[in-house]
């Protein structure tokens, strides 16, 4: 059984996956209470699934980008479980989790997450035979700067607040994903990590490092 943990931003998520079925999935806004919320929610997930930590065979964690505090908390729990139970661990880039839940589209895709101080972290993806594939590295910019980066019709998904959504609706090249497709699904993290683990490409928990947001200049 695999436990997936995503605490990269204010949106947190957990999932349990047995390789065939998602046994439980939960997503919520932490409102800055990651440390308080996470361990009890993990315990609740196990109880609801009728499972325990003894059933775990793999641990997965959203690796970033994300906030320093959020990533640190999720990484600490994932690494602690990995080391305590001698379990393989897999890190998946945060925006890959979002991207892999999106349907096939002809346009390029821009996956985003809130970076604080009216900034957004964004990664561009294109559709290939292997699904959505990142084609550029992460870029951090303001919502006001984002429209200037659009050179063609672009599908945009991710953490888009109400103000940004209203502004982007006025941009001819912006195609906004519906709110239901803008949620990072820990079940997607679980499936991606399961595939990686089956290939034997797990990480050394002592060396797995988070991908932090670019520092503010």
Written overview of the protein:
The chain has 217 residues and is α/β, with parallel strands linked by helices. It folds into two domains: 108 residues, Nucleotidyltransferase, domain 5 (2-Layer Sandwich); 80 residues, ATPase, nucleotide binding domain (Nucleotidyltransferase, domain 5), CATH 3.30.420. Strands 6, 7, 8, 9, 10 and 11 form a six-stranded mixed beta sheet that branches. The protein has a five-stranded mixed beta sheet with strand order 3-2-1-4-5, with helices on both faces. The longest helix has 18 residues. The radius of gyration is 17 Å and the shape is globular. The termini are far apart. The model has no long low-confidence stretch (mean pLDDT 93).
The CATH H-level homologous superfamily of the largest domain: ATPase, nucleotide binding domain
**Rg (C-alpha, Å):** 17 Å
Second-tier CATH architecture of the largest domain: 2-Layer Sandwich
Helix and strand content put the structural class at alpha/beta
Number of strands: 11
The CATH C-level name of the largest domain is Alpha Beta
CATH topology tier name of the largest domain: Nucleotidyltransferase, domain 5
Element string (H = helix, E = strand): EEEHEHEHEEEEEHEH
Which strand-content bin applies to the residues? 25-35%
Poorly predicted spans: none
Helix content: 25-40%
Main β sheet profile: 6 strands, mixed
Averaging pLDDT over every residue, what do you get?
93
Shape: globular
C-alpha termini separation: 42 Å
Discrete helix count: 5
How many domain units? 2
